[in-house]
Design brief:
This protein is mainly α. Helices cover about 85% and strands about 0% of the residues.
Length: about 525
């Protein structure tokens, strides 16, 4: 029942109440096994719902309790979550202190699993700090310590992280040797399961292995082997159970397409991957995808796409801190609800404490909100300056194209220049019903050739090109017509509806039109 409860996403504030009730019951029954289990599940609950500060606060006491009563499974599980959160928050010094404690205790008690786990986390943090040689030593020692453990999962985690270190060190020959050893580990473990009549295999480590193989064979420009392991990824059962695996598959495909010279397809796929990672708020993955998008645009020689991706990277890095503040505020609000419910059960005895705690939490929330608002203000100011610089760049780029001698332009670029001049002089984009056929007839050409010219000149589709012209025009209107309502600006710029205008504006510039106008006035 407890495990089922932890899987739900509603009434989160009730979950901790239930966990506390279960723990109190286990303590009354003096059932140590249940008490250790509930503490491990409590840590899992905090981890799954991103209550990071709460997890960091309770983890040391939970670990101490499970260690005193010899429950190494619960101890290792809580330790894993605890160090993971410290590492994610880049609190590396604190993490090393806790890791060394676990390492010392494990070595003293001759516990290979705890010792190996501590070494594994030393390696991960050293890798994050770019101490690659130290990380490699940690991983080698971890594999040696854990070589006789009956459960191979911990060793597979080490192999997976070790491969990243060797890739960072650009030791690709050594990386290939390590991947072969990793592959043998998985094959041996699967054979042992098969001999026991167990159908389930180690599909997650295998998927990570295939992904690493694709990456290293692409580095070696060995496209047949890269394609072979990509096809293994395509048939992996992981794709049915993990959204992240499906995104990793698309990322591998994007890199393969780039290596095979299909730059346009790779570029289109990079946008799909970015949107997927944006959906589940993977800031690191989004940043990585944008870097790859810049490189693909470089292969294409498309300066505009490189420029756009660069500014999107800046906006993304600025937004990460705001997201972290929001997460802290959400945790604070949820904690407030939890405490309020617990205290209500004992309000006859604890009413004053409840009121005092509530006021304190509200004061903290207000302080966090003020900090958040100031950071958001600074972020939006930077975004506003980026939008202005980006718009000025587009204008300069357009002027350069218009002034270039005709003999220096391809047939497609000459048509695109003619289109740009027509749009500038006649402002046809302000007509909500404008379409490709209408423009093609005005330019005495066909729709397909017009689409090719726009793709050559703007690197985009007809609809996206028209919408970009409308957005650029709306930027000028927001400043030059300060008293004109926003919905009227949307209409004047050519958008069929205000919601469409607001959605495209926000997606393109990272802030709404009202915010942009406010910063322009200031």
């Amino acid at each position: 029942m407890l495990l089922a409860l932890l899987q739900q996403d509603e009434n989160i504030w009730l979950y901790r109440v239930e966990l506390e009730t279960y723990l109190q019951d286990a303590e009354k029954r003096e059932n140590i096994e249940d008490q250790c289990f509930i503490r491990a599940q409590w840590a899992t609950f905090y981890n799954n719902h991103n209550f990071n500060d709460s997890l960091i606060q309770v983890a040391p006491a939970f670990m101490e309790f499970t260690l005193q009563h010899g429950d190494w499974n619960a101890y290792a599980h809580i330790f894993n979550l605890f160090i993971g959160k410290l590492s994610a928050q880049k609190r590396y010094e604190e993490a090393f202190v806790e890791i060394n404690k676990v390492y010392a205790v494990s070595k003293e008690q001759n516990n290979a699993r705890g010792e190996g786990l501590a070494l594994y986390w030393m390696g991960r943090i050293n890798n994050n700090l770019h101490r690659f040689e130290d990380a490699e030593k940690n991983y080698k020692e971890a594999l040696e310590v854990m070589k006789d453990l009956p459960n191979p999962v911990a060793r597979m985690d080490v192999y997976s992280s070790y491969s990243l270190v060797l890739r960072n060190m650009k030791r690709y020959d050594d990386l290939l040797v390590l991947l072969h050893a990793f592959e043998k580990e998985i094959e041996k473990a699967d054979q042992e399961k098969a001999a026991q009549g167990i159908e389930q295999r180690y599909i997650s480590p295998a998927f990570k292995l295939y992904n690493e193989y694709v990456a290293v064979y692409l580095i070696f420009k060995d496209l047949p082997n890269a394609r072979r392991y990509y096809e293994k990824m395509e048939t992996s059962p992981m794709l049915k159970i993990s959204t992240h695996s499906r995104t990793s598959l698309l990322d591998a495909r994007m890199q393969l397409l780039r290596a095979e010279g299909h730059f346009r397809e790779a570029l289109a796929l990079s946008d799909t991957i970015y949107q997927q990672r944006k959906t589940y708020e993977d800031a690191g993955g989004m940043t990585n995808t944008l870097y790859k998008r810049v490189n693909i645009a470089k292969d294409l020689g498309d300066a505009d796409i490189m420029f756009d991706a660069f500014f999107e990277l800046i906006a993304l890095n600025d937004s990460i801190k705001s997201v972290e503040v929001n997460a802290q505020l959400d945790e604070l609000r949820t904690t407030y609800e939890v405490d309020r419910h617990i205290l209500e059960k004992e309000r006859n005895r604890n009413y004053f404490i409840f009121a005092l705690a509530g006021c304190g939490l509200l004061a903290i929330a207000l302080t966090i909100w003020i900090i958040y608002s100031r950071r958001l203000q600074a972020k939006n100011r930077a975004l506003y300056e980026q939008i202005r610089a980006r718009n000025q760049y587009r204008i300069a780029h357009e002027e350069t194209l218009i002034n270039r001698p005709q003999e220096e332009l391809s047939a497609e670029m000459r048509l695109f220049r003619e289109l740009s001049l027509m749009m500038k002089n006649e402002r046809l984009f302000t007509d909500p019903d404008v379409n490709r056929r209408m423009i093609a007839e005005r330019l005495a050409t066909n729709e397909r050739y017009l689409a090719e010219a726009i793709h050559e000149g703007a690197g985009d589709t007809f609809n996206n090109y028209i919408n970009q012209l409308r957005l650029t025009d709306s930027l000028d209107l927001l400043i030059s017509q300060p008293d004109l309502p926003i919905d009227a600006i949307a209409t004047d710029a050519g958008f069929s509806s205000y919601p469409t205008f607001h959605r495209l504006f926000t997606r393109a510039y990272g802030m709404g039109p009202s915010e942009y106008r406010r910063f322009a006035k200031s």
